[in-house]
């Protein structure tokens, strides 16, 4: 029990207090995305936090589209968001909502505020409203329309709804306090005229509620208890509380803020990702170099690794960036035991075993994962001609190079010792073939103890190997070199994508499907690309290399 108390985050402590004091008798949370883009890793944190809290407290989790601004919203985004949340494992059950379904109720709450003398229709232009608002150091000025009668306000608001005014001609404002030190409380706009077609309500409305008015009402209507959002809304909390109080909700929800998740060396933030997509710098919202959830999925990240990452990040009130390498660490931890370790050659040269009979094939029994017997084993054909990685051979090796060079002996993984006898080059001087001899006494698993070799290299059998494309990724941005250029544009890493077209993998990938992932021994974790891979033309994404610069914090 002791441990459990220690591991509580500050939001859980607040919830405990609310439950103990009887403020609420249950917990209901929500995730309220605006369908104006794809979700990213930061949203994953919010989703898993809200869903996790609902589960922990035996409460309810709502999925609600905050679709009150038709300008940027699209059905395409609604569908992608649902898919991403399901993939992450957050289950909203029957609780799928759209803020736009509450438009009539919101309108009625606005009418109620007018009737209470707490809202008025204002004819100032947008520029004038800005001018009248004052600054952080100067109070605002009251609008000349502030003291209209309730009757006049009701009439004008109805006329706004009826389409009698142009966009920007009139707004409805909350009547709070133009001298408040908090600018959000200086008679904020709560409804505006906008002649736009909405993806859900069509042309039924030409006035739309503002976020700060709509959001608390959405929460209250759904009986959300803890409305969790990010820090930039802390200054809006007095307005949130004002709205739920003035609308007289019996059990008003409570807003709690936590800090946004940012990652180093990648682009987080919906609008920045959107710009990369629109500028054609990346291949759509699911380009594997992005950290949108669709991109992470396509790259080969798993929901489990993301969950682990989010938990390691914790929940706090201080802003800061988390090392991208920590996300990679979580992925390796998740896949280590679960995935088979296969042999793949990304930059091939031929290896010919001159003393191995030309028509002989041995089917070697290879364990899929030495740390996890449950993954079983597979048969890999072994024969006279193999492919190995170009960098596993050197004509003139430096010191401590234990792989192949003329006269040196290495182990071919799971097979035999081979000794380099000679090699061939093409007209450009690149090595094309390495000739070896093998020692039949040294077969893996035969108990041979005659002598030892220092290097083990992997291989694929040339006549059986399957050609594949492999895509290697680096971070889009290298923060050590600077995030921005002098002109304010992003300083993008020109090597963020490397495409290798002539790779060879073992013949065991026949049944590999989209999103399947594997360890390629000595090279990292790779995943079948869901968009471009075909059964007869495999494409793999490198999710992460095997080596890590990341150290777990103590
Ligand atoms: P962005 O800042 O990337 O444009 P947003 O806040 O506009 O995102 P919404 O669709 O409004 O996107 O966000 C839905 C929810 O996700 C909100 O509750 C928001 O606070 C939360 N959220 C957004 N970005 C992050 C982040 N980086 N870390 C944690 N939560 C986030
Ligand atoms: Mg937002």
Notes on the structure:
This protein has 554 residues and is of the alpha/beta class. The protein has 13 helices and 27 strands. Helix 8 crosses helix 9 and helix 12 packs across helix 13. The longest helix has 16 residues, at 41-56. It binds adenosine-5'-triphosphate (ATP) and magnesium ion.
Low-confidence stretches: 1-5
Spatial shape = elongated
Summarize the biggest pleated sheet: 7 strands, mixed
Count of alpha/pi helices? 13
- Summarize model confidence as the mean pLDDT: 94
Bound molecules: adenosine-5'-triphosphate, magnesium ion
**Strand numbers in spatial order across the main sheet:** 12-25-26-27-23-24-13
Radius of gyration: 31 Å
The count of DSSP E runs of length 2 or more, i.e. the number of strands, is 27
* Proportion of beta-strand residues: 15-25%
Distance between the termini: 22 Å
Structural class: alpha/beta
Topology:
Blueprint lengths: L1 H5 L3 H11 L7 E4 L9 H16 L3 E6 L9 H14 L7 E3 L4 H13 L3 E4 L3 H7 L17 H12 L9 E4 L14 E5 L13 E3 L1 H11 L4 E5 L6 H10 L7 E5 L3 E2 L6 H9 L14 H7 L3 H11 L7 E2 L1 H12 L5 E2 L1 E2 L2 E6 L8 E6 L9 E6 L2 E5 L19 E4 L4 E9 L5 E9 L16 E2 L2 E2 L4 E8 L23 E9 L11 E4 L3 E5 L9 E7 L10
Parallel strand pairs: 1-2, 2-3, 8-9, 10-11, 12-25, 14-20, 18-21, 23-27
Antiparallel strand pairs: 4-5, 5-6, 6-7, 13-24, 14-17, 15-16, 17-22, 18-19, 19-20, 23-24, 25-26, 26-27
The site of adenosine-5'-triphosphate has 15 residues, from helix 3, strand 8 and helix 10.
């Amino acid at each position: 029990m002791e441990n459990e108390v220690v591991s509580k985050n500050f939001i859980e402590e607040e919830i405990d207090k609310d439950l103990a004091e009887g403020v609420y008798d249950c917990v209901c949370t929500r995730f309220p995305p605006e369908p104006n883009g794809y979700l990213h890793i930061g949203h994953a944190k919010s989703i898993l936090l809200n869903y996790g809290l609902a589960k922990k407290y035996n409460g309810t989790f709502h999925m609600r589209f905050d679709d009150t601004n038709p300008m940027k919203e699209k059905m395409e985004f609604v569908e992608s968001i649902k898919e991403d949340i399901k993939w992450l494992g957050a289950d909203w059950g029957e609780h799928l909502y759209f803020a736009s379904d509450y438009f009539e109720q919101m309108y009625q709450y606005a009418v109620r505020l007018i009737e209470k003398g707490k809202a008025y229709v204002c004819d100032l232009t947008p520029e004038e409203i800005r001018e009248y608002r004052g600054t952080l150091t100067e109070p605002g000025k009251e609008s000349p329309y502030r003291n209209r009668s309730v009757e006049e306000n009701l009439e004008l608001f109805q006329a706004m709804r009826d389409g009698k005014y142009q966009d920007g001609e009139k707004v409805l404002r909350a009547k709070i306090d133009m001298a408040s030190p908090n600018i959000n409380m200086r008679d904020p706009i709560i409804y505006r005229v906008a002649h736009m077609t909405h993806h859900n309500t069509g042309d039924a409305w030409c006035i739309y509620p503002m976020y700060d008015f709509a959001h608390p009402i959405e929460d209250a209507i759904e009986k959300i208890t803890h409305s969790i959002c990010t820090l930039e809304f802390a200054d809006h909390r007095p307005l949130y509380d004002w709205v739920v109080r003035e609308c007289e909700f019996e059990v008003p929800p409570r807003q709690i803020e936590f800090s946004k998740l940012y990652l180093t060396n990648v682009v987080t933030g919906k609008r920045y990702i959107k710009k990369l997509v629109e500028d054609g710098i990346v291949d759509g919202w699911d380009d594997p170099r992005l950290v949108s959830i669709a991109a992470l999925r396509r790259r080969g990240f798993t929901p489990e690794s993301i969950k682990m990452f989010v938990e390691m990040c914790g929940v706090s009130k201080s802003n800061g960036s988390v090392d991208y390498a920590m996300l990679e660490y979580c992925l390796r931890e998740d896949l280590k035991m679960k995935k088979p370790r296969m042999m793949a050659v990304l930059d091939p040269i031929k290896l010919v075993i001159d003393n191995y009979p030309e028509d002989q094939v041995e089917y070697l029994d290879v364990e899929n994962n030495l740390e996890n017997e449950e993954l079983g084993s597979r048969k890999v054909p072994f024969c006279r001609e193999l492919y190995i990685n170009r960098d596993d051979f050197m004509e003139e090796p430096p010191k401590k190079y234990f792989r192949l060079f003329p006269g040196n002996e290495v182990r071919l993984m799971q097979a035999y010792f081979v000794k380099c006898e000679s090699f061939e080059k093409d007209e450009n001087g690149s090595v094309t073939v390495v000739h070896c001899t093998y020692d039949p006494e040294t077969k893996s698993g035969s108990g041979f103890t005659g002598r030892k070799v220092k290097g083990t290299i992997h291989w694929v059998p040339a006549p059986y190997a399957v050609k594949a494309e492999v895509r290697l990724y680096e971070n889009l941005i290298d923060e050590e070199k600077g995030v921005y250029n002098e002109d304010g544009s992003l300083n993008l890493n020109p090597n963020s994508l490397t495409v290798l077209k002539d790779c060879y993998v073992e013949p065991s990938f026949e049944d590999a499907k989209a999103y399947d992932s594997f360890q390629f021994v000595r090279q990292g974790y790779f995943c079948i690309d869901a968009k471009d891979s075909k059964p007869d033309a495999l494409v793999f994404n490198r999710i992460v290399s095997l080596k890590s610069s990341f150290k777990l914090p103590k």
